[in-house]
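Thread: adenosine-5'-diphosphate complex, take 2
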Amino acid sequence: MNILFVASECAPFIKTGGLADVIGAVPKVLANSGANVKVLIPAYPELAPLVSDAKTVVQFDDLFGGPAEIVEVTATGIDLLLLVAPHLYDRAGGIYLGPNGQDWSDNDLRFAALSFAGAKVATDGVGGWMPEVVNAHDWQAGLVPAYLRQTGKACPPVVMTIHNIAFQGVFDATRLADLWLKSKMFTQDGVEYFGKISFLKAGLALSDAITTVSPSYACELLTPDFGMGMEGLLQARRSDLSGILNGIDLDVWNPETDPHLPATYSARSLKKKAANKAEVEARFGLTTGDGPLFCVVSRLTSQKGLDMLLDCLPDLVAHGGKLAVLGTGETNLERAFVEASNRYAGSVGVIIDYDEALSHLLQGGSDAILIPSRFEPCGLTQLYGLRYGTLPVVARTGGLADTIIDANEAALVADCATGFQFAPINATMLGQAIARACHTYRQPKIWTAMMRRAMRHPVGWDQSAAAYQAIYASLIERRD
Ligand code: ADP
Ligand code: GLC
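Output below.
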């Protein structure tokens, strides 16, 4: 089966969040079962070393304001199609945000170009390779089925995957012609969304199937609280919507081999984790103690609910807990966490940075990971936590609800608890979950049993990759 992925990030090459991890992991797993996946992403400056080794497979005289090409190269086992368009991607700054912290003003063109290139590969193929199905990821690839529809050419079916419905790619209707969209596409069952253009809406309306990244989020998306304006459309397409849980790359996230850990360990050598904990304490300026070390590895945005954690800090510290926070994001949250690290010096340590190596160390050296998200389509850090025996303390929502089994009385008796969940999602209930975690930590037998169980919990991709493949196969069959 030939599959084209179109996305805006792919680990380990370029990453701002979990989308990259997923795009970097799934193609390799699908390849194990005989599929041939190519991943189309923009050639941001970080990709320059790969571009120089690559072969040109498609050329555009003009792609939204400048010449462009698609080049092909294989790296870390992933077959990449890089969209080289210097006028759109070759600039210093973030991949979505400029140096001023605001979205690039031409993000509509930047990701229309990605979608347009995706549609081109979908219809014409590259070097004799023809995709049989296209999987477009998030709003940045949402226009793929729109461009396919307006070409009128024969084309493969498109699966639209929602990683986070909060990002919808909404732009002014006056941009229609600049985005090379025909006016006939500006309808309620096309790209039109409350009088504007939405890339994600286009993808949801015009794709052949829709997936999202956990079963619970698939249900939540049908409600006004979580659907964020798309719930009506999703309800109408309910029979085409599936929730397929994300997995993790078991080679990259493996406590037995992780090169970022001073001490690698397994479920049989948990004591070795102490050396990693000491390293985290040293890096975050924490005093050693006999209480649990909690960590946060996260974007600092309101989605992640970390403002609630700020409210809980006095109690966390009073229970003997320590906290190490690694994150970047909204200025007010960054500032509040830095202030907290001064107020609770020695107990709360904060590093405002994006640091892949440090994120591994935190998983390997902390006792628990806090994820109090207000909504969470899937979440990957709780899955890394499970694999590293770093017990997740999570809000009961989306993928967090689907992956963590709360240590309530019944679960403890049945030997199946892997973490701590709380609901409703507010600071009081988060505080209670933290208190429960601290209390459980002081019962080493129970805690250690939970760590071992967490580490056994299946977090790989096998089952989910098979679910994606089943959808691809049914769409291909329907076309034939
Ligand atoms: P989201 O995609 O919503 O940010 P996920 O939990 O799915 O949430 O994925 C987040 C990914 O980004 C994980 O791989 C996590 O380790 C990583 N990450 C988040 N913040 C940082 C950071 N400051 N430094 C390093 N890695 C980070
Ligand atoms: C999004 C979501 C996150 C999910 C990730 C990968 O960024 O916020 O929950 O794990 O995509 O699917």
